[in-house]
Design brief:
6 helices; alpha+beta; flavoprotein; NADH Oxidase; two-stranded antiparallel ribbon; oxidoreductase activity; single chain; oxidoreductase; Nitroreductase family protein; 33% helix; Nitroreductase; four-stranded antiparallel β-sheet; 171 residues
Length: 171
């Protein structure tokens, strides 16, 4: 597992190659199996492969959406805020599990933050909800841009681990 974590880097450039459905299903399984508070399972996913729709999602923020430009697939991570008072955490865990699965499958991904992000037309979350017909009670923490890597990022190594950030018993 630690090797997968070291290898997982934010990839923003992808090859123009469609992902097989069975690969997408494997990614979704990781998100669906992620733990949630009180095991309520409030997190849901919207898979987007249509290029025009992916471009619309990219335009929901002024900056930071470049990974969607060449992504073969985008997965919107949505959570029913009426079911979970910790929807941000539930969504984040699910998205992180999916990113680890994506790396394990030899693919790349980047987390495109949507919560508390804006563009000239307003709130990014609202725009994503409108584009994809997601109910208002759902929060959108991020969109995962996914595809075959077209970016060569070196994996982390032991020198990248800052052990000074670890404290025992007290700060």
């Amino acid at each position: 597992m630690l090797e997968i974590i070291k290898s997982r880097r934010s990839i923003r450039k992808f090859k123009e190659e469609k992902l097989p459905k069975e690969i997408i299903v494997e990614i979704l399984k990781a998100g669906l199996l992620a733990p949630t508070s009180k095991n309520k399972k409030p997190v849901e996913f919207v898979v987007v492969e249509d290029k025009e729709t992916i471009v619309k999602l990219k335009e929901c923020k002024n900056k930071g959406g470049d990974g969607l430009t060449t992504a073969a697939c985008a997965i919107v991570v949505a959570c029913d805020c009426d079911k979970s008072d910790v929807w941000v955490e539930d969504s984040s865990i699910a998205a992180s599990y999916m990113q680890l699965q994506i790396e394990e499958l030899g693919l790349g991904s980047v987390w495109i933050q949507m919560r508390k992000r804006f563009n000239d037309n307003g709130d990014a979350e609202n725009q994503v909800r409108n584009i994809l017909n997601i109910p208002d009670c759902y929060g959108i923490v991020c969109i995962l841009a996914i595809g075959y890597k077209n970016d060569d990022m070196r994996p982390y190594d032991e020198n990248d681990i800052d052990v000074s950030k670890v404290h025992y018993e007290k700060y």
